[in-house]
Amino acid sequence: MFAFVLVLAFAACGVQSQTELTLTPLPYAYDALVPVLSKHLMELHHDKHFQAYTTKTNAALKAIVNDPKAPEELKTLAKQPIEVIFTQLQAFPEQFQIELRHNAGGYINHKLFFSLLKTPTTTAEENKPTGPLLQAIEKSFGSYEHFNQIFTNASVSLFGSGWVWLYIDAKSKDLVINYTANQDNP
Predict the structure, then answer these.
(1) Rounded to 5 degrees, what angle do the CA atoms 47, 52, 57 make?
(2) pTM value?
(3) Nearest to residue 85, comparing CAs of 96, 71, 95?
(4) Mean pLDDT of the region 2-16
């Protein structure tokens, strides 16, 4: 399977406050990331995978909301922003937990992924972060170059389908690199 690498910034994802998810259009052309990501790859992951996650998540949530046997608090939860739903998967009946974990996770991860990409630049120095992000990377990893090496190694060695993440550890408040399988996220 294909592994994506991603720098996580939760705020960049934005909260979807409607009861039905929509396929977020790309903020750039399908071929804007060539030669790093091909037009075909972007079309496949946006128009096929992201669309499938959107459709399947909406179907699961609609089934819960329309189920006459579902408790009202569950129906209310199913109408919350997808980021809230994703943190409360254990509240859903078992038959929906895995479906929502995979599909809502795929929706959230892809929405975030596509929102963070930018057109490749000609030099590595132009791609280097600045300001507080660079300072946090240097504090946690010693240097940007060391971070880049660790992140690249984690990405290349990720087995199967999954994601490599850079995020702030809630306890230590330091940046960490970790990976998740399939459509999970930290």
Answers:
(1) 135
(2) 0.81
(3) 96
(4) 38
Distance separating alpha carbons of residues 181 and 169, to the nearest angstrom: 18
Q: Looking at residue 184, what is its pLDDT? A: 86
Question: Rounded distance, CA 44 to CA 50, Å?
Answer: 9
What are 37's two structure tokens? Answer: 């990501």
Q: Is the CB of residue 110 less than 8 Å from the CB of residue 128?
A: no
- 184 Rama class: left (phi>0) / alpha (psi -120 to 50) / beta: beta
Q: What is the pLDDT of residue 19?
A: 66
109-162 confidence digits (pLDDT tens): 999 999 988 887 777 777 788 999 999 999 999 999 999 999 999 999 988 888
- Which structural domains are found in the chain, ordered by start? 3-16+39-181 (1.10.287.990)
Burial class (CB in 10 A: 0-12, 13-18, 19+), 73: exposed
* 148/171 Cα distance (integer angstroms): 23
Which residue has tokens 């599909």? 103
Contact status, residue 155 vs residue 164, Cβ threshold 8 Å: yes
Task: Tell me if residue 137 falls in helix, strand or coil.
Answer: helix
HEC assignment per residue over 77-116: HCCCCHHHHHHCHHHCCHHHHHHHHHHHHHHHHHHHHHHH
